[in-house]
Amino acid sequence: MSADEGLLARAQAWLAQDPDAETRLELEELLLRAETGDEDAAADLARRFDGRLEFGTAGLRGELGAGSARMNRVLVAQAAAGLAAYLLEHGAEPTVVIGYDGRRNSHVFAVDSAEIFAGAGLRAILMPRLLPTPVLAFAVRELDAAAGVMVTASHNPPNDNGYKVYLGGADEGSQIVPPADAEIAAHIERIAATTTVDALPRSVGYSTAAEEVVDAYIAATASVAPAPAGAAGLRWVYTAMHGVGWETFRAIVDRAGYPAPVTVTAQIEPDGTFPTVAFPNPEEPGALDLAYETARESGAELIIANDPDADRLAVAIPDASVEGGWRRLTGNEVGLLLGWRGARLADGGSLACSLVSSPGLEAVARHYGLDFHATLTGFKWISRAPGIRFGFEEALGYLVNPDTVRDKDGVSAAIAFLGMVTAARGEGRTVADLLAEFGDTFGHFASDQISLRVDDLSIIGRIMAGLRERRPSSVGDIEVEQFDDLAEGSGDLPPGDVVRLFLAGGSRVVVRPSGTEPKLKAYLDVRGDTAEDARERLATLRADVAALLDELR
Predict the structure, then answer these.
(1) Catalytic: which of 106, 154, 174, 447?
(2) Mean pLDDT over residues 117-133, rounded?
(3) CA dihedral (537, 541, 544, 547) positive or negative
(4) 236-288: per-residue pLDDT in tens?
(5) Domains of the chain
(6) Is 514 a catalytic residue?
(7) Is the pLDDT of residue 181 over 90?
(8) Cβ–Cβ contacts within 10 Å for residue 507, how many?
(9) Half-sphere exposure of residue 512, counting CA atoms within 13 Å on the CB side?
(10) How far apart are CA 177 and CA 90, in angstroms?
(11) pLDDT of residue 491
């Protein structure tokens, strides 16, 4: 293909307002090649300017580079100006706090945002250094800010970055949800269409947050679970996955009274290139290999891992039955143990999890006389559950301290888990013993997931449409007792592209498209009389669901 005049004009207009020397050079070279007939360059240019990186309930997230469909300083400036316009529309001279992690350009994007907020007449406060995402969420409430921005792409690939938006006031520092996301997006689109970013007013009159804000987060999080007597002598391993968690977590561990961990030294300092992992997500195969190696060498009893912006927690325990002697607990296993802890501590209120997370949390809530809420996926929904005292999602996200942070927080969750584990350790019990006791008390729950990656997105639509049209009466030999289509919403749940099948015997299947990848996901949950029974039921269900999806495909 050759570049058409409209595409070239859009690229030239973008180039003229780009303040970043690196992306200007990148785009100049691409334009030169495209203008001389290079088809690969023309195709690359078309991809970069094929629409805009969409601003939604997760803010912005995408690959770094020049163009409206990439993350860059032009797009960030437009987003900051749009957010400023939204805030001014809803109140006079509000405060905005801006945080950033250790990824490439995170600090640059944060300073750009602070200057644009200040230039728009807002009180802009930049966090004092790179810090975990939950510290920013905490600061929104601590500083009584109207909004917060965190520059991070969490555990995305190294060349990605993103822009998460939180709201204060009645939203209590939670991530944005509709209609705020659409209103902010409309302001961004208007500014992008009418104003070049070099014409946006800027000011260096922003301030830097005092260290007391970070100290307050450390103190509040250390109080989540002060070390019990059983913590003495604990040998454990910690990895920050090349992210920003260690400095803050180390201070909390010390203040709470836990012994210092053995660290995975190659991964402990922030490094946006993530040199030791193919994908900086503790859920990914191989991501914890260095932690396992460190644990074996040090004779550790436990592994604690944060993802790069420390809003997620992964836990691994010794297991002689698996190769290497260590296994990572699933997000559901950690969530159910932390939910059990939260229920015992709660004085009323509710437990909440995403609708694709284990139904075991509802069993815990009922056992303790607490309310239970299943929400759409994402902590923007979980954090807003009425009366929430604990919430989780199976993708390693946990909210254990809602009075401090209204978002997933891998640091406070790690302290809560340490407290629970060391209390059991003082009684001569292990994490495996806690899991067994959970099953004996509430039922033996087991979960699995089928991810169907496609090259053609229409396949996902065809499968979802086929499920809705067929409304299967059984999955394999198991009767479907209830079929829920959430396209129009259901009960307290807003509309979503989700189908739920409740099966005889307590099993459940939830099917939905991935929100971030070209995948269809099926979440499988069973409840058995014993752990072995649950594993057998899950294996059967997995085979039956895979056959159903293959047939619909």
Answers:
(1) 154
(2) 98
(3) negative
(4) 999 999 999 999 999 999 999 999 999 999 999 999 999 999 889 999 999 99
(5) 1-50 (no CATH), 56-209 (3.40.120.10), 216-441 (3.40.120.10), 443-552 (3.30.310.50)
(6) no
(7) yes
(8) 26
(9) 21
(10) 16
(11) 74
